[in-house]
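This week, think about what follows.
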Amino acid sequence: MIHASSMNRHAAWPWLTALSAALCIAAGLDAIDAGWQFLFKPLTTLLVIAFAWPRGSDAPTQRRFIRIGLALSLAGDVFLLWPVQGFLPGLIAFLLAHLAYTAAFCVPVKFAAKPLVFMAYAAVAALILSQLWPGVPGALRVPVLAYVACLATMAAQAASWWRSRAGTAALDASLARAAALGGLLFMASDSLLATTKFGAPLPLSSLWILLTYWAAQWCIASALRPR
């Protein structure tokens, strides 16, 4: 009975997280009162943290870094509720989150184990940044450059972990694949955010930015082995 109850509770996390995310996105699109973002944006990330919390007992160091990354992401979410005043603090919080995630993905495989993967991610990041660079204010150029470097490094390290696990046990490969997908989705989300902020506004931008963002965080949390 206890085991079944625990399984039902864990099975509810994706649905609760999706519902909270949907309500936050609806508030961002003015489908409901915009003030609801102040509740549902941090709540959604808290639900991702709750999903991740019991996972990864076999890899405590990796679990600790992913928990730190999620906590820093929560701080970034709160800062970015104020898009102007909170942009730089939010940028720094997420930069630190990416460093924590990179450290987590260095636990199962050495840093830059797949150099070609790093070169590919660096090229993509440089291409995106070059298109948006003219619109980045001078005061933000150094922080934005540092952020992009950390983001691309995190995503590349996650992909390196995945490529290093080719041909291994199914569960090990699936955990690494979840991390790689999370890194890729994070790059997509932040590229959309940067395009909206420094380039041309995108239709339904908050929908696509938040959808890819929380999918990324969920995938990163899923990179920890289930209990």
User: Anything to note?
Assistant: Residues 170-198 form the longest helix (29 residues). Residues 59-222 form one domain.
